[in-house]
Amino acid sequence: LIPRRVLVRTQRARWGSSAADGTIRLNWRLVMLEPELVEYVVLHELAHLREKNHQAGFWGLLTSISPDCGLLRRRLTER
Questions:
Q1: What would the mean pLDDT of 69-76 be, rounded to a whole number?
Q2: Strands 16-18, 23-27: parallel, antiparallel or unpaired by DSSP?
């Protein structure tokens, strides 16, 4: 899973996003999070390069590359 390009931006409501053209955008505020949460966001967006939605295929792929993704997702939403 290789993005076409990675941009670091100010995003008000998201930690990251993935576009149909393969671009991943990451919120610069990620630098203030614990490394494992940053890794989760990056892996989440990389998984969107293959699975564009949040249906079962996406979560299966993400779990295969980040077995603790459920716990990490909950920790991130508590922020």
A1: 96
A2: antiparallel
Long-range CB contacts for residues 32-37, cutoff 8 Å, separation at least 24: 33/76, 33/79, 36/68, 36/72, 37/72, 37/75, 37/76, 37/79
Amino acid at 73: R
With a pLDDT cut of 90, the percent of the chain lying above it is 92
Structure letter (DSSP) for residue 4: S
Q: Are 24 and 18 in contact (CB under 8 A)?
A: yes
Is residue 37 helix, strand or coil? helix
Per-residue model confidence as pLDDT tens digits over 27-65 = 999 999 999 999 999 999 999 999 999 999 999 999 999
